[in-house]
Amino acid sequence: MPQTPPLTGPNSSSYNNNNLYQTKDESYPGLYYHDNNLVSGSLEALIHHLVPTVDYYPDRTYIFTFLLSSRLFMHPYELMSKVCHLCMEQQRLGDPQADKKRVRKLTPKILQLLTEWTETFPYDFRDERMMRSLKELTHRLACGEEVYRKAVGQMSQGLIRRLTVQSQYEEALVKINATAAERLAAVKAKPQASIQRDMLSICSDPFTVAQQLTHIELERISYIGPEEFVQAFVQKDPLDNDKSCFSDRKKASNLEAYVEWFNRLSYLVATEICMPVKKKHRARVIEFFIDVARECFNIGNFNSLMAIISGMNMSPVSRLKKTWSKVKTAKFDILEHQMDPSSNFYNYRTALRGATQRSVTANSSREKIVIPFFSLLIKDIYFLNEGCASRLPNGHINFEKFWELAKQVSEFMTWKKVECPFEKDRKILQYLLTAPAFTEDALYLASYESEGPENHMEKDRWKSLRSTLLKRQGLRLHSETRTNPKSGLRQL
């Protein structure tokens, strides 16, 4: 991925500084630089700056940054239409008398720009309007020499392959989610007939479970497009006369699916802890997940680590004081310290920098793994977007802001390219992805069944939950706890 230039920050330079000057290139009036870094410009000038000429090709860093941030101001298909128009103007593709030498110089550059766009932002081309513009321009380019036709063919095949893989992934997610929903419904509908297995019966090795969690994490992040970080926060550009709110641009399905995975893992951990009837078994499950979390930390899988900690810190779990009294919590305390939210997650950010440095100098795939605490990454990008104006008072685009945005996103793009070096265990993966994870109410009910309510508020809630959940299942209320004699797990 392109690396953005080092910047001192969006608010560090004055736009009235004497070092600030307008580019002297007459082709791009309206671009402003500070210490040789592009800091602002009109939208039209920035679009022109993206398009190659006979003597110019945009820096890859600029291409990535502008393609990423431009969707805050216009639809990708609108940008593609403008780019195609400018490319045809530059190459005079409609003029049969156009200088062939000029065409030979420009065509490879235009194809390179389109290739970078289709490789880095392939999901843009799920829009038929994007594909229409792309096909129109590439058809004109391919009318020349055989080498151009071959390049266009390779680019098109690569794009189709990426979009096909994305569609297959989405279909797989639908099936996984449907299976998980069916299994949860089965447990609710026939609790006495179902034998609920737990994680320890599937695998009792924390390192192996941490490896399989890393498989899931790396697969999920590999499908997140860089544009999703921006599209998740898209709002109407105040200078746009179109009154629509660009709702069709708010597409961040892979990002949302990844956040849902974090939530699922947290609830699954809490479910695994609350399900056992015996206190000794619950304590063992807690210690097991503490060890899994520690292995995740060692691997560099901070997202699973935080999901596990979140699950163990849920109120239905944290209130199990008798259970926790049987747990050796020293390792858990260390992990909580590492993920302590105080000082803006200072300890975690320090650990993340260490993992990133290790990744840069890594000799093996395992050492390259960096899976950030994703919710915090989203929060950082959100506040960067909200904390700095996208437009300056003169109406120009605040490009200094977008250098920093691209820097954060491109770092994630590097992390997501790492292939998981661990061997897959289908049985463990299937369990992690589809095992029933209880709702918060069901967790509270299981928690109260394990260790009774301690005050009037908890007693009232317990009675209400039992009444609501058990009536919903069409079961009679019993004063005694129902257990499955084969598994020793609570049935709700």
From TrEMBL:
UniProt keyword Kinase, yes or no: no
What biological-process terms (Gene Ontology) are attached? Ras protein signal transduction
What molecular function terms (GO) are annotated for this protein? Answer: guanyl-nucleotide exchange factor activity
Q: Which Gene3D superfamilies match?
A: Ras guanine-nucleotide exchange factors catalytic domain, Son of sevenless (SoS) protein Chain: S domain 1
Residue ranges occupied by any Ras-GEF domain in the UniProt entry: 205-453
Per UniProt, which keywords does this protein have? Guanine-nucleotide releasing factor
Protein's UniProt keywords contain Iron: no
- One of the Pfam families matching this protein, by short name: RasGEF_N
Highest taxon listed in the record's lineage: Eukaryota
Locate the N-terminal Ras-GEF domain: which residues? 34-164
Tell me which GO cellular component terms the UniProt record holds: plasma membrane
Which CDD domains does UniProt cross-reference here? RasGEF, REM
* Region spans: Disordered: 1-20
Q: What is this protein called?
A: RasGEF domain family member 1B
Q: Which organism is it from?
A: Tetraodon nigroviridis
